[in-house]
Specification:
By secondary structure, the chain is an alpha/beta fold. It has one domain: 3-Layer(aba) Sandwich (Alkaline Phosphatase, subunit A), CATH 3.40.720.10. About 35% of the residues lie in helices and about 15% in strands. The protein contains 14 helices and 17 strands. Strands 1, 4, 5, 6, 7, 8, 11, 12 and 15 form a 9-stranded mixed sheet that branches. The protein is globular, with a radius of gyration of 24 Å. The protein starts with 5 loop residues before the first helix and ends in a 15-residue tail after the last strand. The N terminus is likely disordered.
Length: about 475
């Protein structure tokens, strides 16, 4: 079990302050900064718990809950029974949201989109996603995911932090804390949010550090003049002046560190130093000007528009090749309570070519074998229509009982479909995969036993998967 609590870290520094060595403020300031920087680079694990299959994760999070019944999980029975009421024998009294729970009827809604089997694996994908369908044999579909959360905030928080209530460290923060960074000039954990899809609010605590040292929090990169807020020097401040200011600030923090013994002071110094190095590294990684035409052909024309999902996928590849450990893309806009056919067409167009481009780009450069790509949202959608059902229009409510995600690369078995749902697409039929099972499996692929990466906070040991989580062995290569 990995211990890393406040008191042991504080005692080391108090010992140094009180020892006969008599370290001065400048020397101690350097020590504090170097110690925190070394911890952030290396992580608290001296070595992985086992041989990792992946070095990094690119997580494509579809915020809002994409409809598995219109994308991946084909249910002909819903089309046969279109418009008839959801049988109680299927629902079994399970909880509904307040948005559809008071409807007089719950009419089953078959998908208006066409499905086909693809590749040697025979994976079913709808005609909304022709490019993703074309690489079915590179993907591992898990059609039996489930969660307890039925509303967006707790459901997204659950996937990102392992708990429905805010305050826990995010997945990327746990990775940074455990195995550190492989690039001292870029954060271990970078967040990208599609700028043109703002229907659903997202919040920085989803990539926060929780009770872990703040050096492990995610850093959001934006499109536009300032990719990282407050990174560049203000007018009138030179690089030399900034360097001198940071050196003096380090000395002041050293004095404060001697007095208070708080390890968060060292983390703050390390963050300042990282920001200074990022003044050079961030413009370099954000510069697409040297990318050849065939790369943009892979990702599609939207990749030339900064801040789009396609551009963020290309940026994710550039970050991955610079060994950023965890790259989180958020693409909101999947919350289709009404007008689903039109809304999901738009979303599918956003992501289909870009996801294909990312996987193929990683594959052709040899990076897919040690880069784990994950696609999915916080829950699925209901098999019945929320609101009025017509021949060409319907909506779907939140559905936590079953939904689909997919994986590629980094130790995942390609060309398989794992788990299944019942004929109505309402319940898991076999091989259910819980949120904590997903998290345990992702950590395993990076060489981490999810039960052993812990942090002691307020007298209790915490971990990403709380007291749950089982490794999903059948999806491992």
């Amino acid at each position: 079990m990995t211990e890393h609590a406040i008191l042991p870290a504080a005692n080391r520094r108090l010992f140094l302050r009180q020892s006969a060595l008599g370290l001065g403020g400048i020397a101690l300031g350097s020590l504090l900064a170097n110690e925190s920087r070394a911890e952030a680079l290396k992580g608290v694990l001296d070595k992985p718990h086992h041989e990792p299959k992946a070095k990094r994760i690119i997580y494509l999070f579809m915020a809002g809950g994409p409809s598995q019944l219109d994308l991946y999980d084909h249910k002909p029975l819903l089309n046969e029974k279109n418009g008839t009421d959801l049988p109680e024998s299927v629902r079994k009294g399970q909880r509904l949201t307040g948005m559809s729970g008071n409807q007089a009827t719950l009419p089953l809604a078959g998908s208006i989109f066409k499905f086909a089997k693809h590749g040697k694996s025979g994976a079913t994908v709808s005609d909304l996603l022709p490019n993703i369908a074309s690489m079915a044999d590179d993907l591992c579909f898990v059609k039996s995911c489930y969660t307890e959360a039925i509303n967006h905030d707790p459901a997204i928080t659950f996937f990102q932090t392992g708990h429905q209530i805010a305050g826990r460290p995010s997945f990327g923060a746990w990775l940074s804390y455990g195995i550190g960074s492989a690039n001292e000039n870029l954060p271990a954990f970078v967040v990208l949010v599609s700028k043109d899809r703002t229907e659903q609010g997202l919040y920085a605590r989803l990539w926060g550090n929780g009770f872990l040292p703040s050096v492990h929090q995610g850093v959001q990169f934006r499109s536009g003049k300032d990719p990282v807020l407050y990174l560049q020097n203000p007018d009138g401040v030179s690089a030399e002046g900034r360097r001198k200011m940071l050196d003096r600030l380090k000395e002041l923090h050293a004095i404060q560190g001697e007095t208070e013994g708080d390890p968060e002071i060292a983390a703050r110094v390390a963050q300042y130093e990282m920001a200074y190095r990022m003044q050079t590294s961030v413009p370099d990684v954000m510069d697409f000007s040297k990318e050849p035409k065939d790369v943009f052909d892979l990702y599609g024309e939207d990749a030339k528009k900064p801040g789009t999902f396609a551009a963020n996928c290309l940026l994710a590849r550039r970050l991955a090749e610079r060994n950023v450990r965890f790259i989180q893309l958020y693409h909101p806009g999947w919350d289709h309570h009404g007008g689903l056919p039109g809304g999901i067409r738009r979303q599918a167009k956003d992501i289909d070519r870009a996801c294909y481009g990312l996987i193929q780009d990683l594959k052709r450069t040899g990076m897919l074998k040690d880069t784990l790509v994950v696609w999915g949202g916080e829950f699925g959608r209901t098999n019945y229509s929320q609101g009025k059902l017509t021949a060409d229009n319907y909506g779907r409510d939140h559905h936590p009982r079953c939904f689909t995600i997919w994986f590629a690369g980094g130790g995942i078995k390609p060309g398989i479909t794992y788990g299944s749902t019942d004929d109505y697409g309402y319940n898991v039929a076999e091989n259910g995969v819980h949120v904590h099972d997903v998290q345990a499996t992702l950590l395993h692929l990076l060489g981490i036993d999810h039960t052993k990466l812990t942090y002691k906070f307020q007298g209790r040991y915490y971990r990403l998967t709380d007291v749950h989580g089982e490794l999903v062995k059948p999806v491992l290569a």
